[in-house]
Write the structure tokens for this entry.
Amino acid sequence: MIQDTANTDSKYQLFIEKTAATKMVWGLLSKEGWANSHSAEDEEVAVVPFWSDRALAKACARDDWRSFTPTAIPLPEFLESWCVGMADDGTLVGANWDANLSGKESEALAIALDILTRIKDTNSTLALKNYGSVDEFIADINQSDE
């Protein structure tokens, strides 16, 4: 499916800005686990969608995901546990997908880096569990890319 690149990029940017501001990410959770899909580019690659607010997540809780409930994830947990773990597993992040399950798919550490950079650029703070500072986390991500 061909996606409108400008709209996809806009939804991605909204995801970065809003999650950095609210310090919260939303996913869809059911008794069976978190909603997930496969990449539009490669059916062998898993994608876990996340949203920047509850309403956007709720709009996708339909059809196969109708039994799923929008569930908040604190941003530090999302960055340190989800993104790091998903990167290790080769799982992508779907950012602010629409009700047609269309949107940008990104590498987990790339999205973490974009959020952390936004937090740093806005002089915001984030209480991290595994890192002494946002700068330390950014340095660790950049080092893993080398």
